[in-house]
Design brief:
single chain, mainly alpha
């Protein structure tokens, strides 16, 4: 499994946890706050402090993972050099007086025919071998 895929899964889990923690916090108007007994370590104030710290660290983790994933994406999609000049080399035009390029060899089972010279008409299609 690649590092990019692993970090993407971790990023999705952190995002889901961040959404859950934010929704559990008591808002100004009540919202989806946690109803618990006021005593103990997770009293009203203790739960608020825990959720606030959790939100802070999940948000920091989310941003760090986003930066790391962006860096990995740039490194994996690098295309090579970038040219900074407008000069381009055009392909050379075909020279009609140059020697012809030799033809590719004929596939197996098909007889090779020499091109007809002089008439300018295309050569007749080769006959198919009898079965």
């Amino acid at each position: 499994m690649s590092v990019f895929l692993f970090l993407t899964v971790i990023q999705a889990l952190v995002a889901a946890a961040l959404v859950g923690v934010v929704l559990m916090q008591r808002s100004e108007g009540g919202g989806l706050g946690i109803g618990s007994s006021p005593g103990g370590a997770f009293g009203a104030r203790g739960a608020a402090d825990f959720l606030t710290r959790s939100t802070k660290w999940l948000a920091i983790t989310f941003v760090v993972l986003a930066i790391a994933l962006a860096g990995l994406a740039v490194r994996e999609s690098r295309v090579g050099g970038v040219t900074s000049t407008l000069e381009r080399t055009a392909p050379k035009p075909l020279d009609p007086l140059a020697e012809p390029v030799p033809a590719a060899p004929a596939p197996a089972g098909v007889p090779a025919e020499a091109p007809s010279e002089g008439s300018g008409a295309p050569a007749p299609a080769p006959a198919l071998p009898a079965q």
